[in-house]
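Here is one such protein, fold included:

. . .
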Amino acid sequence: MDTTNSRFIAFLNSWRATLIDNDSYQKSDKENYEKCLQLYNEIITGKNIINVDDSDFVNLFCEGGPVTAIEATTDINSSNRMEEVITSIKKAIAGYDGSINNIMLFIFIGKSTPLLMEEMSFFNNLISTFESDTQVVWGIKQVEESDLLRVAMLFNYSHKWAQYCNFSKLCPKSAHRIRNF
């Protein structure tokens, strides 16, 4: 898939340009931007067991503020592998205190070590910790032989920078929400 014309990429670039214009762009912003791009490309290219595509990214992240990316990994053979990665994700988002608007969760797992049904309870538990109006999209991708179970989370949240952004051309249906933060 050619991602150069993606509205999500345009959204990320617009957000990045806004930060640069407002002298707010820091090294952590650059690293986060690059991580978002990397995960976007990983998620939408190739075949997924449970699919997420460009329109999912646009529908989730066109409103609500900057997009943040976090990941957690653990040894694929760990007896508590899903519990370990979900605990890491929970620690990483602990400071956002209910301000998370939209979430994309993605599990990357090796072909020789499939996801077990009982492991999904940890995943469901994570999702249940968010506000009831938080939109969540998730997917699963089998990767070539890997020694790691990896869970990636992209999310946006209410943020002071959102008031400076003008995404109305990319997301006309949500322009009024962004301006009224």
Remarks:
- The CA atoms of residues 82 and 116 lie 9 Å apart.
